[in-house]
Amino acid sequence: MKKILSGLFLSALLLASVCSCSTEPADANVAAASALAKRVVGAKAGKIVFQSAPADTADYFVLESKGSKIVISGNSANSMAVGLNHYLKYYCNVEFGWLLNDTFEMPSKLPKVAEPVKVYARVPERFFLNYCTYGYTMPWWQWQDWEHFIDWMALNGVNLPLAITGQESIWYQIWTEMGLTDEEVRNYFTGPSHLPWHRMQNIDRWFAPLPQCWLDEQLELQKKITARERELNMRPVLPAFAGHVPRDLARIYPDAPMTQLEAWSGYQDEYACTFLDPMSDLYTEIQKKFVEKETEIYGTDHVYGIDIFNELMPPSWEPDYLGRVSRQVYESLQAADPDATWLQMGWLFYNERKYWTNDRVEAYLTSFPTDRQILLDYYCERMEVWQRTESFYGVPYVWCYLGNFGGNTFLCGQFDEIDKRIENTFVNGGKNFKGIGATLEGFDCNPYIYEYILEKAWHSPMQTDLNTWIDALADQRVGKNDQTAREAWRLLIDSVYVQRTTPGQSNAISQRPNFERTKTYYGNSGRKYRNELLKDALGMLLEVESNSTAYAFDVANLTRQMLANHFDKLKGEYAKAYKEGNREEMKALSQKMIEIIADVDDVIGTQTYFLVGKWISDARSWGVTDEEKDYFEENARNLITTWSDADMLLNDYASRQWNGLTGSMYKVRWEKFFAAVEACMDEGAEWDDDHYKAFSDDVTAFEKSWWADRLGTFSSVPVGDSKAKAKELFAKYAEEI
Questions:
Q1: Half-sphere exposure of residue 326, counting CA atoms within 13 Å on the CB side?
Q2: Is the peptide bond before 314 cis (omega within 30 degrees of 0)?
Q3: In whole angstroms, what is the distance from residue 89 CA to residue 342 CA?
Q4: How far apart are CA 551 and CA 489, in angstroms?
Q5: Lower CB count within 10 Å: N or C terminus of the chain?
């Protein structure tokens, strides 16, 4: 009896010890991880205990069961968060999505961890985001969106996030203190959704003036963002001065070496940027003013993003000049913060690769200490620049998956190829290979691939082979172990996710209509799989019983893509019928194509992610007056359609199949096209460049009306049952696909 009581007493002591860790956090890391768990799993957080573990050679977590508790130990709150995510994904079959509306249900009873699991990070740096994401996805986010997303980043191990919100609020103070007027400064900025390209020295003044209410609110928002990211052991990458100045600064400094850059991507000269030579003393002065003011308001982790030649041509291609200018930028940064590290996008070495020869790259990167740099190898699924630059000549770099241009909604991503490339980098990428990340331009309809890539930064036991990970993904998406779902996801990843990302990836539905190839510059509807394979995978998923919100998203998303692919096929048949002069067939096909667009609009209307009404509602929420609300709405509509007020290079770049946008703009464009072709045939004429131009002019005017006059009102909440709608449309179209 004494032995039994003694055993019970010891068990009680152990349980009390474990429980005390959750109710009285021993340090800031435990407190941060505990608070994260409460936000993520609610009341179930009471069953999860966090403990600090001693530092080791790399970040790590330990996951185990003790009594009725799940115990997660780690060397930091960030590592503990990764441990929590590992438990959620691989024991509870749930996935914490990156958007606020991504919800899940926890098991009624937390599963036990049979044997302790210890997982180390493979790389110290895990980067996430892109300047463009702040335009294509995040310009209208409020704190609740950011709070959820920062939790997602922590769960996925991100510790080096780009943090550029609120910088205009700092710049406003700097420029006005230097003598510019309120009007001059706010007219220098662009509208909110276009600010990423203003920050990258591409455009000024488009949708100016930027409202003061925006500046005030963004300053406060960035304080919350950086504080929470640091709480979770992240080092926010803050902006610094890259040489971009208001044109009106010449009024105050008439002798300063400023140059007006060439107009960018089809914009008129009035929107071109002004660049201050980094060799000037004024450059160093402004750098110091900005970094000091930013540090005063937001704090600093001494990592700064500066990109002086992004999609721009330097004044000289001489290696000596490139080395001098990069050294001068670094020295200006060091003068402002002696502990500064300069982080740069490597996009320029890919995008302007014919100019950035190895001697120029080497001179540019090695003119200042390599240990004060981090370079993002930006688009590794397309080109791993480290492979042609001797691993960036010793500069620490992060292997990055770009994955999406403009927020396009298109199933893409090569899991198998990505796996091979990352593993090869571990073997051959050099000792200066320091991280893995993602540089997506916009959040898209393939969220799981980013989770896969970030998990490659850890020695995850679930990534011993791709099929093991796929099966686990299927379980998470449907919320349980289901063999049919696993077969569907294996088919998807083996046969549908077989092509890399390219700019303008979209189906013909969301491209300006034309026969055969679209004349939209970035329109790219190339597909490397048979639509029947996607249909088969969707058919299997529709057999699965699931109440998961991830499952509801998937069946809507796959139905959308299946119908859009079918539309592309019918477009080809319509062109053939036109060549044959078969007007009866043309009429039947055009009616069918318009019907498909309407059906796509319906099925995506069941999902919050696919609602243009939410995008617009979120934009309007930033305004105080009706005038401000209308301004933000127009800016939001403009970016995802024409980008400007002219028929230009970037038209439809951000095309996305969203409910409301698909039904009210894309559908109308196709109706106009079919009517124009009918009228042309009535004349007995051939569809030529003149006919296309007349049609294009009409569409251009309509597109501008859509955003400038705010045509249409759209639901900001989903309507209908996703699976029911998907099953209805699957039955309707399955035989003809």
A1: 27
A2: no
A3: 35
A4: 12
A5: N
